[in-house]
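QUALITY CONTROL LOG
STEP: pairwise intake check
CHECKER ROLE: data steward
CRITERIA: each record must contain a sequence immediately followed by its structure tokens, with no blank fields

ENTRY 1 OF 2
RESULT FIELD BELOW
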Amino acid sequence: MAEPTEPWDPAAPGVLRLPSGRLVRGRGLRHPLPDGAVPTYAVYCLGQEPPAVPWASRWLRWPDFRLPADRADAARVLRDAFDRAADERVELACGGGRGRTGTALACLAVLDGVPPREAVAYVRRHYHRHAVETPWQRRYVRRFGA
């Protein structure tokens, strides 16, 4: 069994506390890596394959302002990220850290018990007020897990 990982600092930039207490970090890859702890696992929601990083990561093909290219794969990847967040430092990131990242974080909130119709508001309140940028991303969250 793996050693438990020190969790994210709840006050660190981009860290979202889910209702269960799990901490996940959202981030824009166009911004410098924040000081402090690094992820132990990351999901990169990008249209093109991300550069290599020194921690475990997964590329989720997700073009800017759009939806995941493979929704079944996205559901598996997000479920895995949610499960890992119980004892790992999980990061979700896209270029700017708002649209795709916010949508993925809202899906994790749904997995954690937030009603799908309330998940976008939850992420906007606790992560970034402009998270989940498009109407189709909001609809995706409402239908996630249905």
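ENTRY 2 OF 2
RESULT FIELD BELOW
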Amino acid sequence: MNWLNSEAFTLFGQRIIWSDMVGNVFGLVALTLGWRRSVWTWPVQFLAGLVLFGAFFGHLTGSAGKQVVVMLVAVFGWWQWQRGKQGGADGHIAVRFATWRERGAMIAAAAAGTVAVALLFEAFPTLSWDPWPDAYIFVGTVVAMYAQARGMVEFWFAWLLVDLVGVPLNFANGYAFSGFVYVLYGALVLWGMRDWWLRTRTAPALEGAPA
């Protein structure tokens, strides 16, 4: 699958790589479907991970391994949304705010996971070109996908935090299309956050959930 790592075209002086473009287009579609609370967001996220795995496998072991984790979380998300899609009045998954305990657990997991993954990347330099930011984006993505799988509005906040580092990092490392797409992610995240936030006002309140 070497063609995935070849140049598709040049945009504003930046080389656009096929794998970068195809994988991130799927990611953009998946985020849009997530906003609409369509269960098909998860197969699309899985497909995006599969494309990027094919591009990285054999020469960027760390990046390929990260896509395996993303695909596993996508399978978990599909399972969660299939189970909970009748929870909403419209036949889709019901959305809610996380409890304070859930928020604390996700923040702790994100912090500990980022440190652990960054140290792993530093111990094995071939796994990542920029260990700490790369670990932050990877762990943040997994946490965001987990929150999405549980129907938590905090999913959108997690994506915003990933975007803050992802945009400059992708441009700096030559993945221009990822950088452009992450800017679009930011706009979709804000719209999706507003939509899910408003839906929590009409959903039944969860006992113990923060207002």
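INTAKE CHECK: passed for both entries
DESCRIPTIVE NOTE, ENTRY 2: The chain has a mean pLDDT of 80.
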